Amino acid sequence: MAKKLYVGGVPYSTNDEILRKYFEQAGEVTSATIIMDRATNRSKGFGFVEFANDADADNAVSMFNGKEFEGRKLTVNEARPLEPRAPRRDFNTRG
């Protein structure tokens, strides 16, 4: 079963392919995605890496959490599901 990891502290110059290659040291990576800001199209400094199996993902957490990568300290842990957010307030109405 696949396991997705959250990777924080990613250098802003890192792209999906660099992230994938780095995490392949721990095992078979099925996807690696850097989260980009919609307005500026720049990296937000974090991303997600998905592994083909749980053992490789657990290995990646132990290998990379707290380690320096391109001058920044990584935070690597199991990704949590996105929590629902409150609806945005509509500023176009009066009252």
* General shape: globular
Strand content: 25-35%
Output the CATH class name: Alpha Beta
Order of helices and strands: EHEEHEEE
Distance between the termini: 50 Å
| Number of continuous helical runs | 2
Low-confidence stretches: none
Describe the structure.
The protein has a single domain (3-77), classed as RRM (RNA recognition motif) domain (Alpha-Beta Plaits, 2-Layer Sandwich), CATH 3.30.70.330. Strand 4 and strand 5 (72-73) form a beta hairpin. Strands 2-3-1-6 form a four-stranded antiparallel beta sheet, with helices on one face. Strands 4-5 form a two-stranded antiparallel sheet. The chain contains two helices and six strands, in the order E-H-E-E-H-E-E-E. It is an alpha+beta fold and 95 residues long. The longest helix is centred in the middle third of the chain and has 11 residues, at 54-64. 20% of the residues lie in helices and 33% in strands.
